[in-house]
Amino acid sequence: MNIGLTTLVVSAVTISCLHTATGPDHYLPFIVLSRSKKWTMSKTVFWTVLCGFGHILSSVVIGLIGVLLGWQLSKLTWFQDVRGNMSGWCLLGFGVVYLLWGLRQAYLNKPHKHFDVYEGGDIYVYEHRHGDIVYPQNRVKVTPWILFAIFVMGPSEPLVPLLFYSGAHRSSLEVVVLISVFTITTVLTMLAMVLIGCYGYSFLKTDKLERYVHAIGGAVVTMCGIGMVFLGW
């Protein structure tokens, strides 16, 4: 495995782990549903894995747009001589923009998803800003299939520039490896967090980091871009 692909893989693993572990909505609903509905462990694992793959599906669909853009760009004659440097700069530029956007999102306290648990084990999902009042009519009762729909509609944006970079190099191997690594890491991280919670352990306090999840993803992509452009990764 060459150093460029290694860098992309490490970035994909880091992003998927941080994106999953810092978002309680990736695992808390499964823990609560499992306990309140008295699910078997196999049923808990099934819904966690299914929703994890649904989450990845939307990420990959958006990421393949990045692959297509990079692939088309690589066909231009003038791009052939500079594509390594140009794609690296694009990766760096996206990372910086995404980092700044993530910091702005955290500063402006934009709405984000939350889950409430009621007596009897019912779970409701809603969007809110920190400090805002949420009215009952703004909440939606969570069922396993609604949870699946939520995950399908919530892609992980940092995967896009990584796949764009591979597309610009016309590397099918990189695209397949990145998607595979991102999928496996995300699902395993979700599963690990759910199992840890189901067995009563909670040594990671991630709710404070949730607000900065986009900024963290942007920082990882930025570091990857800096390595590609300036350090010869």
TrEMBL record:
Protein name according to UniProt: Urease accessory protein UreH-like transmembrane domain-containing protein
Domain of life: Bacteria
Cytoplasm listed as a keyword: no
Naturally occurring in which organism (per UniProt): Chitinophaga fulva
Transmembrane segments: 44-70, 82-101, 145-164, 176-202, 214-232
Keywords: Membrane, Transmembrane, Transmembrane helix
